[in-house]
Fold this sequence. Notes:
This protein is of the alpha/beta class. The protein folds into two domains: 2-111 and 229-298, FAD/NAD(P)-binding domain (3-Layer(bba) Sandwich); 115-224, 3-Layer(bba) Sandwich (FAD/NAD(P)-binding domain), CATH 3.50.50.60. It is built from nine helices and 17 strands. Strand 13 and strand 14 form a beta hairpin. Helix 1 (12-23) packs parallel to helix 2 and helix 1 (12-23) runs parallel beside helix 9 (276-298).
Amino acid sequence: MNYDCAIVGGGPAGLNAALVLGRARRSVALLDNSQPRNRVTHASHGFITRDGIQPDEFRRIAYKEVLRYPTVRHWPVEVTEIQRTDQGFLLFTSTGGRVQARKIILAAGFKEVLPDIEGVSDFYGKSLFNCPFCDGWELRDQPLVVISDSPDVIHKVKLLYNWSRDLVVCTNGSNSLTAIQRQQLISRGIRIVDTPVAAFFGREGLLERVYFTNGTHIERTAGFIAPALQPNARFSTVLSYQTEESGGIVTDEMGRTTAYGVYAAGDSAYVMPSQLIYAAASGSKAAIAVVADLTEEDWQV
């Protein structure tokens, strides 16, 4: 079968794209290996009618709604390779299967690589987070730590100051803050620690202390870190679409990439802000673009 569209990734972007395409009576192969980026998170926020929902429950509801449409098929696999063909694209899966499609939407998002700090994985998603808009409300007025060796850390601190004034900034041994930025932080009572972070300590995922390589520590109940991001779908070489320095795929306002027949949605396209509602909206736009382009092709004489 030659599907109208194959969607690589079953997060909110891919699921919403499948929903729109299914409702447009287009045949869809939704390929997803069930490894969402937010699977370690206790709850997802900022999505109207679904604020505070658990990620697994969000996916369960979404798949139930999407698969009501008979032209949508879920393939619980990972896409390992994509080739162009005369009919569009041929996708190879981790189970040895093959999927033929006229168009493809890349919506596999990013994989987070946590900093090399002892204990970080025990706390990430429970009391250590990445996105202030996703988890800032739950941590309001708490003593927080912000850890990053990136110059962008100043922007995250400014945002977090809206939720808590009790902040400690850890540059993890880097010289990422300018003299002016340091003065801005100090003038607001924000402590700066340049000594590298050695370990996190707490119980049942709840942070209590942050230890440094010189043996000192600070008491903190939660915090924010800056994981490195790696694209889950790396097909730019074979498909020849353009990417940003951040790893995001360059698209127009409707999700069309620079490669004919290839679309991108969700974190795959814009990287930040990383929120469910942004991803779902971009998936809807990409699907609308696919339907419009397929329709024009079908009407060509």
